Amino acid sequence: GLDIGGDSINAKKVETRMTVDVMVNRRGPYRFLVDSGADTSVVGLRIARDLQLPLSTPVILNGMTARNIVDRVKVAELTLGPSTIHDLHLPALREGDLGGDGMLGIDALVNQRLMMDFETQVIKVEDASKPYRPARDEIVITARRYRGQLILTEVRAEDLTLDAVIDTGSEITIGNSALKAKLVRKGREKVWTVPTTGVTGETVNLELARIPEIRLGSVTLRNVYIAFADVPPFTVFGLAKQPALLLGTDVLETFRRVQLDFRARKVRFQLRKCGTESIALSTTPTSSFAHLSGAGEACRR
């Protein structure tokens, strides 16, 4: 499978997202969500208070539901497995909105290989400069990089080619208006309105539709539910005007393993085995968005 020789980090699922143990200034461990769709890591207010982290300059935070000016704190060391990142200035937000003690963004992942095993809920991390041995059954998609983020270009929705970002911090897969205009035809697809809450606490309504088919490289997923909204990350990653997707964990967990290799610009997928190990397809969208995609299709026979 997608094996990495790095340290295993115990991961706990929060809905469909996974958290990892992180040390902050050699204290902890704390439970951080892994958010590959965020360009900055975040610490919870409790950590900032308990460790007496010094204030830094405020910053504009482009969250999933809003754009806010938030306070930042100075973090001397952030340790994830074998890797330590130094001298960070991180937003401090409420733990209830984050879903954990903090959040790891691509500033902490940019020189790493990150492997998420959705069967065992284990995350492995390794220095991406170390040699990698390809697995026999992996499906590899080469990405381009923009501001540290991996953007997949081998993605199709029905007959439309589009760009996609792997967003492990979102439980839902979100498309922008440019994608909706191409895919959702009035009167043909049923559209639901569902609320979602971002890391800064705001709730916005998203329109949800079922898309018959999405292809990631050579893998076809059927009956995938996509929420549509022009959320700030599309602008941050230069994807506001062309059809684009943020692939959330509702789609990612249909695979057995997903590995993000930021240095090599590759995303590697390993399929689940068909049969009892496949996740069942939910036929009705819910506010939690758990298990909405055509999971039974992302498997090998």
In short:
With 301 residues, this protein is mainly beta. 10% of the residues lie in helices and 48% in strands.
Written description of the protein model:
The protein has 301 residues and is mostly beta strands. It has 6 helices and 24 strands. The strands form 4 sheets. Strands 14-15-20-16-19-18 form a 6-stranded mixed β-barrel. A hairpin with a 4-residue loop joins strand 21 (257-261) and strand 22. The chain is globular, with a radius of gyration of 18 Å. The model is unreliable at 1-14 and 275-297 (pLDDT under 50).
CA radius of gyration: 18 Å
Helices and strands, in N-to-C order?
Answer: EEEEEHEEEEHEHEEEEEEHEEEHEHEEEE
Biggest beta sheet attributes? 6 strands, mixed, barrel
Helix content: under 10%
What fraction strand? Answer: over 45%
| Count of alpha and pi helical runs | 6
Secondary-structure-derived class:
mainly beta
**Side-by-side strand order of the widest sheet:** 14-15-20-16-19-18
Shape: globular
The total beta strand count reads 24
Average pLDDT value? 80
Beginning-to-end CA distance, first to last residue: 15 Å
Which parts are unreliable, with pLDDT below 50 for 5 consecutive residues or more? 1-14, 275-297
